[in-house]
Backbone:
């Protein structure tokens, strides 16, 4: 095989390893973003530091999983950017969340205080629906892939850990805050934001 042909093959291999989007964290936010991006035709990789996804989903609502609330506004969130939160809530309203899960076989029940829970009272059903949506969208999920370094160079993001390195045109940090370190929310996202001069906003 000639040198030029080998170079073409290597360039092709390198290009296929470049993702449109890398998401760090396979929690609710990361999985929702991943399935949406994949559904739009993007090549997406989700990196999850734990051996499985959705640790906080499984423990939320006393393992019942409070999926959404009929009455929700930016006032229900602690954030330095309430207008941003309002725009996010307007872009994907509670009724759309209900339809999302209904379409995936998870029927939600609205309680008197406006909270929506799965009729099965099982957070596992919520996580299963999210993982199913991610799979159907053609998204790749890599487990036990704890991100330790993020760099930008050559117009691409380089995301690496102990035994992996991936490249992407865009990265989305969805690692959570510092609320439950045992679930993997160790504040890494804040560190990355500071490194690249982005002011981290706490939304909880």
Residues:
């Amino acid at each position: 095989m000639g040198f030029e042909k080998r170079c073409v093959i290597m360039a092709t291999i390198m290009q296929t390893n470049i993702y449109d989007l890398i998401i760090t964290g396979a929690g609710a936010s990361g999985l929702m973003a991943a399935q949406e991006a994949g559904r739009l035709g993007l090549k997406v990789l989700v990196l999850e530091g734990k051996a499985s996804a959705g640790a906080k989903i499984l423990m939320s609502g006393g393992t019942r999983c409070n999926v959404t609330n009929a009455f929700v506004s930016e006032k229900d969130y602690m954030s330095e950017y309430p207008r941003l939160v309002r725009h996010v809530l307007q872009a994907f309203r509670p009724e759309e969340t209900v339809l999302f899960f209904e379409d995936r076989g998870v029927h939600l029940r609205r309680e008197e205080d406006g909270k929506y829970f799965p009729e099965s009272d099982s957070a596992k059903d919520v996580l299963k629906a999210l993982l199913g949506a991610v799979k159907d969208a053609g998204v790749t999920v890599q487990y036990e892939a704890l991100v330790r370094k993020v760099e930008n160079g050559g117009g691409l993001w380089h995301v690496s850990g102990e035994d992996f390195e991936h490249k992407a045109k865009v990265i989305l940090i969805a690692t959570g805050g510092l609320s439950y370190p045992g679930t993997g929310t160790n504040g890494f996202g804040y560190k990355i934001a500071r490194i690249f001069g982005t002011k981290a906003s706490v939304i909880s």
